[in-house]
Amino acid sequence: MSSRRGWFVVFEGLDGAGTSTQVRLLADRLRRERPDLQVAVTAEPSSGPAGALIRQVLKGRTTAVTALGQPQAFDRRALALLFAADRLDHVSCEVEPLVQAGWLVVSDRYVWSSLAYQSLDAPMEWVAHINRFAPAPDLLIVLDVAPDVGLSRVDASRPGREIFEREETLDHVAGAYREALKVLPAARACVLAGDRPVEAVAEDVWAAVRDLLT
Ligand code: TYD
User: Fold this and answer.
1) Is residue 1 a part of any domain in this protein?
2) Cβ of residue 58 lying under 6 Å from some atom of ligand 1
3) Is the Cβ atom of 44 under 6 angstroms away from ligand 1?
4) What's the CATH number where 40 sits?
5) DSSP H helices in 91-166
6) Domain total in the chain
7) Mean pLDDT, 10 residues at a time, over the chain (214 residues)?
């Protein structure tokens, strides 16, 4: 097994910012132009057990019931803990083993999603605290779009909306992302305007990743 360390690259942004598209385009281009690298694509919520539970909650398929039989929404602070638990599981099962073995791992979302979204329902310092064991990535790429642009892309891409996909909610999340980047600055970060043509954004992503690799 190789002892060289690889890289961990993270994409962040509001719902509909284009992170999944850009992660895919970056991985395709790396595989074409850098066949010497081993590239893995991953995401949060992850494919692990906590990630599966989180996806049910996001779709509203896990309505909680009180001891008195009253239906109520899943507790948002419990959801914050699930995201933090999923992150450590994702890091220990996927990210760290691959990076230690020399792979370049690209994740669609990471700790800044928790800081931005879960601080709607709990203090950001608590969210940072429960995520303090998440290792820093080598590069953070933030795709910046207005909430209405993101939501119209979400609506065009699939039926139905998840619990955070409302314009007022995403307005708050956008402000919280700005705050999150101050609370937890990344050693190497770039914020790209995500409301441009996909190819233009992909070119800027490529430049940032090329810089990291050289
Ligand atoms: P998203 O990544 O947009 O995936 P999909 O396009 O498959 O729905 O959805 C994940 C949602 O979860 C999104 O609304 C952001 C939210 N989220 C958090 O609230 N906290 C987190 O820590 C993470 C990783 C995601």
Assistant:
1) no
2) yes
3) yes
4) 3.40.50.300
5) 96-100, 111-113, 124-130, 147-157
6) 1
7) 80 98 98 98 98 94 88 94 98 98 98 98 98 98 98 95 95 98 97 97 98 96
